[in-house]
Fold:
Amino acid sequence: MDGEEAFAWLVSMNTAEKVWEEVMGRPLTVAHSFPRNRYQRDLLQYLTEAFVEDAFSLKSLVAAVVLHPYFNPGMPEQCEGLESPYYLAPVFDPWVVTHETPELRLNNPGDAAERLPPRVLLGAVTEALDWPPIDALIYDLGMGSEGHEQEEHLEDARAFEIDIGVFLLDGETGFRSNNFGAGLAWEDVVGRCVNPFPQAEEPEQDWIDLLLSEAPQDASLEDLSLALKDRLIGRPDLSDPGERELVEALLAHPLDTALSEIEDADASVRRLCAALLNAPDFLLAGAPGADMIGRDPVIIPSGSSSQELCQTLAEVLFEADEADCDAEGVLLLSSD
Structure:
């Protein structure tokens, strides 16, 4: 093809790879900007064609990425019955194609696990706990707010975003991969499950306050824990004996203890919340847990049901006739 058409395809290919990398955490080319193997090449070509053939539609490109089987490759325990856990094409770790052991020339679900982008993590924690968005705080304070305490909040918030990899400055270009410093910053600032940058003298009510205020006094700590797990990681389940033991240690009470019997339920629930915010289930993408659709917790605070959350999502992402939600909160897309 001639130069201008070739250039358009190269730009489209670059766009396709950037979207894949943003969603999946890993690029489809290596340092010299070419795919390392035929699997990466074919996938990059498929995504590029999906983008170009629908009039350079970003929506179609995102759909092609999230509907690809590797967007949800499964968990290692789902490999039971397979001859080998290495059954994915080497698109996440492309360098294994020359491994001396033939079995290891493919990828496994663990290769797809990746830390979520820092802005996605910030959005997830502030939305889940009903905290004011940290980006909005930085903007508001940066637009002329006065006072030493507010200036200190501004500097702390900026430093925190830089520490976890948010791109704010040309000299600090950001990063997605995890490291020791980013982990410590997250644990120190957000991982205690308390709004780190309150904007008023009196603390605002967050989602945990709502949970405790709407829970009946005879509700058990297990009920509260399931509601919290459902909210943060989408897994309202405590069937594993080892996990139950760890959760009881964090709560400092047996799981069957009633809310009315606990002197400081807020502190107990926030300790569990802190553990969940620092858990791989919250921080990582690419290795989802078992399907929990239809397994709602006993306590569902106002605005937190699957159906309500689904409806909010549908209103944000789609036109009125493009999507709807069923009674279980499953998003239904129009076939038109």
